[in-house]
């Protein structure tokens, strides 16, 4: 009997195997976001310290650019010969 019913129409089991296109799209977006976050933190044990180091580097670069603008390209280093 079960063999006859399986060919006549879709059972409830078969319809639940594939999620709707909207659900599938959302699952793919969630998976992509999860992969992106994992890739960002791969190899970094302390992401907060990396952010602090990047901020320090940006601050140092900004200060150097500001000093270069104020000094009009003149360096403070002087040669001494004896």
Automatic annotation (TrEMBL):
Pfam families tied to this protein: SVIP (PF15811)
UniProt key word RNA-binding: no
UniProt-annotated stretches for the region Disordered: 1-82
GO biological process, one term: positive regulation of autophagy
Keywords carried by this UniProt record: Lipoprotein, Myristate, Palmitate
Residue ranges with Basic and acidic residues bias: 21-68
Biased composition (Polar residues): 8-18
Record-level GO cellular component terms: endoplasmic reticulum membrane; lysosomal membrane
Protein name: Small VCP/p97-interacting protein
Organism: Drosophila erecta
């Amino acid at each position: 009997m079960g063999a006859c019913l399986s060919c006549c129409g879709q059972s409830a089991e078969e319809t639940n195997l594939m999620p709707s296109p909207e659900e599938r799209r959302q699952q793919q977006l969630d998976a992509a976001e999860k992969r992106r976050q994992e890739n960002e933190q791969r190899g970094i044990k302390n992401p907060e310290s990396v952010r602090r180091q990047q901020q320090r580097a940006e601050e140092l670069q900004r200060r150097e650019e500001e000093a270069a603008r104020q000094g009009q390209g003149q360096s403070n280093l002087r040669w001494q010969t004896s």
